[in-house]
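To: structure subgroup
Subject: Chain for Friday's discussion

All,

I'm putting the inputs and outputs inline so they're searchable in the archive.
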Amino acid sequence: MTERNRELFALVPASLLVTAGFAAVFITRDDALSNVSLAYGAIFLALCVAGHVILRFTLENADPFLFPLVALLACFGLVVLYRIDEDLARNQATWFVVGLMVFATTIVWLRDHRRLERYRYVIAFAGLALLLLPRVPGIGQQVNGAYLGVGFGSFAFQPSELAKIAIVVFLASYLRDTRQMLVQGGRRIAGIELPSLKHLGPLLVIWGLAMLLLVFIRDLGSSLMFFGGFLAVLYVATNRVSFAAIGLALFAAGTWFFATTVDHVEDRIATWQDPFNRTLYEQEGGSYQIAQSIFAQADGGLFGEGFGQSLLRTPEGVQLLPVAETDLIYAVITNEVGLFGAVALLSIYLLICERGFKTALLAGDSFSKLLATGLTAVFALQVFVIVAAGHRTDRGLRAAGLRDRGRRDQPHPAHRRDAALRLLRGLLDRGQLPPARPAAHGLRARPGRREGRAMNAPIIRLFAGVLVLFAGLVGATSWWTVVRAEDAQDNPLNARELLKGLEVQRGDIRAGDTTVARSVPFGDNAFQREYTQEAEAISHALGYYYPLGIGGAGTERFRDDALSGQGEGLDTLFDQIAGAGAEVGDDVALNLDLEAQRVALQQLGGRKGAVVAMEPDTGRVRVMASVPGFDPGALEDEGVFTRLSTDEDNSPLINRATQSLYPPGSTFKVVTAVAAIDSGKFTPSSTLDGSSPQIFSATPLSNFGGQSYGPVTLTQALTQSINTVWAQVGVQVGGETMTEYMERFGLYEQPPIDYPDGQVEVSGVYGDEGELVRPSQANLDLGRVAIGQAGLLTTPLQMAMVASAVGNDGVLMEPRITRRVVDPDGRTVESVEPERVRRVMSRETAEQVTQMMRNVVQSGSGTAATLQGTNVAGKTGTAEIDIQSNINQLWFIAFAPSEDPEVAIAVTVERAVGGQGGQVAAPIARAVLESLLN
């Protein structure tokens, strides 16, 4: 098969892609297949065939793959752009036709590109003039501080697109004549042979003027491309790595200078380094674009979300991805066709670069080699800059190739003409390039093949460098679409999933028979969340759902898939492929008892603190109260969320039950008792010295009130909460055993509760730097750890799990807020069954510790928790926070009935002035237990 026939057959897949692409767009938009897509495919094929015919009769031996590859990019770009903006797509189709006409004119008029050498300086200064045009008053156009385009009425273009070709033509022509003198002449400095200024001067003047003009028009992306193209041509011409190294060093120095002296460059670097910083994200011209680009790519995954899924809009019609048709076009592509589609697109670009460098290798004269190398290098760098620019802000210095021809930015090169490609396309006509052919009239004789072959090695190395660049782009895309996709999706700033849910009638959330959250119509084909009056009582466990800025929290966030109708399994996969989406989400039923929740809040009486109650044998959470709380229905009122989220003194949005860490005080003696008895080192009747004070870790430790005891049993020591006895137990049990049982109870790991990860803290001993430290790994004060001090911090949820494990015969269950998920037809699609975490202790140990805790309530420090007719097993705690100011953390943990526990509870009152856990926290627990048991 001839090369031209290969080219013709290769155009067919591109036309089929146009047809399939537009068909997919029509199906997504109208749920119907239109024959218009066939018409578009036929027109596109006809235009490409016309270009092919011109090639067939003008450049018979030209490269057979470049034209089909560019056609493939053009058709893909047209489809993607049509998805975003039909008017822009029609304009782009017009430019595609114009591009084909210019392409045809070029290969007919400029059959011998070597004629350009005669006008090297004219072309060079014409390129400089083109760079200057955007700063000419009246015709120049400025976009966000950069001078990018030129407009004449309704016609506008970007001069740098032509200027880059002009500069490359000059560099190729000049270096063809001076390459030997640059290599052999000059003087040697610091081991590097530098060329003479006579020969290097004109080169540096033209290049320097181009750089100055680029700084003048403030287009950093074009600066990078011009500089990269200059180094590429210089390296291939001289085969001197030292020249390229010096150039890179100068570029690095210039970059550092601008980054430290120019404010908008420094700001862009800051936003690139930390795009998820809320301050940068919210400021004008900040990191919003970068963050949204990453969020969109993370949603794409391996296969993409399909056409029409990337451009999410708020109910007010505001597009989540700003200027998606230009700045964030790569994010749109990655989101809709996934990692595989993005890699396929980059592979097409890479194949074009490969054909360009092969053109350079096959060219028989120096000028052609350097011209092909320069054009290909600039093209490769342009792809790199544009794709990398998908993770940048729309401010200040902007990457080249992302501008509008007038009112907006210019589309991605995948869906626009590229002047460099038009010239590159005609270079490899094998009947034209061999040196045996007579030179065209007026041109100097060409050097032989040996001179040209000397450049082949650096061209190959340059292509290897381009491979590395493209590998970096694939790696960066893979990082956000696969490796870190979950992190990006869980980011609080990411509202994509929440916005998708606006089109779904989100399911109700119920506590018992009471609906606390429902969805109501809002705008066109959208719904908003409405919270009933009862929602405030369970605000932290329930959470909130406000996709337009605030985001989601609590159960609303954790059960988002169910509430928004995004189930798991084959049905969902088939629906996604078919473009169907659920219109009504599933309902979620909670385990929370509203009446007991109200009792807990009333008993706390406005004091900061938390109450957690759960069923020991099932893990069902019946109460999760945190004070102060908030009204979920009022968060979107003007200024409310900002005021609550910045209230550092009260932190009402923090769920103190799961997010606040406190010293557990004497309640932790239950853990120490379990470790001591279950390990076999002690029994409930073991006797120790209860005198006070005693020395632990070279520091005196006293009992509460300084009271001193004689020999006491462990049961008596727990009943009276004797610090010195339990400190001795902790020391004698040892760090290894204490660590083992702390981990058995769930410390040092995130509690397995159905609640968002970011709203659950890990309990354990925290070091001076805020790191978790295990007793077995550090020289901790074991005596004080054993009594709930010395850096030991736990959440109320964790202490409720401790009480629950003892009450459940030594078995720890996973805490569960949700009871079941019900679909719109009333069918239970998920019943949240009890899940066992592990056995913490033997049944015997659990019974013995239960009896010890029962004594605490019957005759010890916890008598205020006594329930008439019901035995309660509990433990008080009074953790000293500020001894001089008499500020304590007050605790009480318990379960009841002690013989067959139905409820386990943990109560804490934050930073109370005076008082004890048995006096303040125990009565709160008694009231909540009474409400739940009755």
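Points worth raising on Friday:
The first helix runs from residue 3 to 30.
The CA atoms of residues 169 and 615 lie 79 Å apart.

D.
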